[in-house]
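Quick one: sequence plus flavin-adenine dinucleotide SMILES, need structure tokens.
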Amino acid sequence: MSGRVELVELSDEQREVVATVRDFVEREVIPVADELEHADEFPEKIVEGMKELGLFGLTVPEEYGGAGLDLLTYALAGVELSRGWMSLSGILNTHFMAVYLLKKYGTDEQKQKWLPQMATGELRAALSMSEPGAGSDVQSIQCRAVRDSDEYVVTGTKMWVTNGLRAGLVVLLCKTDPEADPPYRGMSLLFVEKEPGANKFEGITIPPNIEKMGYHGVETTELVFEGHHVPAGNLLGSEGDGFRQVMDGIEVGRVNVSARAVGLATRAFEEAIRYAQERQAFGKPIAQHQMIQEKLADMGTKLEAARLMLLNAAMKKSAGERSDLEAGMAKYFTTEACHQIVTDALRVHGGYGYSAEYTVERLYRDAPFLLIGEGTSEIQKIVIARQLLERYKLQ
Ligand SMILES: Cc1cc2nc3c(=O)[nH]c(=O)nc-3n(C[C@H](O)[C@H](O)[C@H](O)COP(=O)(O)OP(=O)(O)OC[C@H]3O[C@@H](n4cnc5c(N)ncnc54)[C@H](O)[C@@H]3O)c2cc1C
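Reply:
Sure thing.
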């Protein structure tokens, strides 16, 4: 859609990033995404291209070899990538959250150690909070890190680790004090270094990838820690800081998921509006039937609202402000809107929407993940209501 009123005037640099990523997606991603997704194949060549474009270092400070750009630019790039294939944005997201946490809470030594390699994409990062028995209820995780002189010994099973196999660095949420009351005071973040691609590495086992409905191409794994040793210098901040740090990081993760939702919904809308003008029924293009027009109007309106909410949340967080309300609202609204838009796009395609030959089938399988990752819609509503009640508290 062009000619829209923007919430923000983008800088020349931001426009250039968006145009470059859009061009890359048109040339390198769209022609192959359906095939790679159906084969559940890791997009090696595309990721090499993303490295060359500097996407892994987009938000890494220039002094560490990155582009030093802000969250808004990252979100706009995420929209473009997801318009091509949502999994590409998933490959970047946990990496980006690790960069964010390192920039904000890391020591100079930690930054120097990891950020230059992360800027090039040579070192890629995963972020691991969830466990088989604890997802939304983050404070009930069981993974334990016990201090032993200048090391931590880690034991426990993590679940749903996106990029879990190929990452060389895992930002691990664990308990350093399981007796702490409230529990979040006993939680810490450790940077775990491992060999990318290895199923076994010094007390870490990675079982075969979890099979998923969609979100193919990027792996999601379990990580089993059995007495893995981590240098004490890999602790982020102090013991007990982990929950607060990860909740801060998850706000940027929520902006990323909103960006994915806007990108995915944009593509679904584009596919539907084109198909509606091509497909004939009852002697005219289906776009001429009012009930199809009603769907297109609904989709276009929700998409525009979703885009504005994404920009609002990204700008607020970029400005360094607390944004759990805006990020929560954006995550909730954009992902639910995306799910509805993709469902309508499938309906517009009729039976062909159910065929693997049409892109909309892939979008339809990708969209539900967005309702879950980085906190479910139910959890977003809890966060939103809590903030609203705080803001409008009766005196
Ligand atoms: C493909 C994929 C990739 C993922 N990647 C990662 C990753 O890289 N790193 C990572 O750490 N995690 C990752 N996750 C995990 C994801 O963050 C969790 O699945 C999510 O937080 C939900 O947790 P859960 O699956 O344990 O569901 P549960 O927490 O068991 O929730 C089940 C249902 O109960 C609802 N519910 C729970 N508590 C409440 C409540 N208080 N009030 C109302 N309803 C509630 C939920 O909304 C949901 O509908 C990934 C998940 C998937 C599917």
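DSSP finds ten helices and ten strands in the chain. The chain has a mean pLDDT of 96.
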